[in-house]
Amino acid sequence: MARWIIRAVDWGNIQRSPTFEAIFNYFYSDSNSLPVPVVFDSAGTRVNQIMQNLTPIFKQLDIMDASLTLDIVKGENKHLAEEIISDWYGKKEEQIPKKNKREITQLYSKIKENVHLRQMQYRNEALLDGGIPEQYLPGMRVPFKHDEKLKLIIPVEENITQDIEDFYKPLENNQPVTEIYGDLVGIKPLKDELDGGIKIAKKQVEYFMKTHEQAIERVNTLIAKIVI
Q1: pLDDT tens-digit map of 75-102
Q2: How many CA atoms, within 13 angstroms, populate the side-chain half-sphere of residue 112?
């Protein structure tokens, strides 16, 4: 029997959903805890937009703010980032003139890679510290796409659910069973926090480590319904 795919989904597939992937594959991909063979993976609904610099301005500003907080951006780019954040951070997109939006996007395109790599570094460090072996550490920025073996989608927060519904609307494929992780275990969703460094990465690891046993019980229930 081909392995079913259970997929965690967030926005950019950099920290939260890959953290789920690593922890759940470590504990369950080769265990007898599930009634069918399963592999856990992860993806991001906005990865293509990120790579094309088409993310909303508020997200670009969040990345810029994180680059300053984490001391990633340097030199002239740092000075420009400080000016942009001072002028526009927290403003609504319609309040920002087109000229300044272009300036924001231009700088975002230069710094996003280093911010994402640093976030992945923190994520991997937190996973290793949490006892997850290196061979389970995933990559990042995998775009969400359909797969015939994809049977269960687990968004990390509610707004991702809408992205998934929008993805499937024009397709002939039926949307797989979808349930927010927080709903699986009865806790608040894991929000996107870009500027917290290793502290936030460890918080995310702890979030899934404390709840994975409860989550897998609910996953078993959902799988049983799919099999039927």
Answers
A1: 999 999 999 999 999 999 999 999 999 9
A2: 22
> Quick check: 13 and 47 in contact, CB under 8 A?
yes
User: Which residues pair with residue 153 across a beta bridge?
Assistant: 7, 178
**Percentages (nearest 5) of helix, strand, coil residues in the chain:** 55, 10, 35
Question: pTM of the predicted model, to two decimals?
Answer: 0.94
Supply the CATH classification number for the domain 4-48+140-227.
3.40.50.2300
Token digits of residue 42: 């992860």
Query: By three-state DSSP, how is residue 202 classified?
Result: helix
Question: CA–CA separation, 29 vs 179, rounded Å?
Answer: 19
Please, where in the chain does CATH 3.40.50.2300 lie?
4-48+140-227
Query: Closest Cα partner for 176 from 35, 16, 26, 43?
Result: 43
SS3 (DSSP) at 155: strand
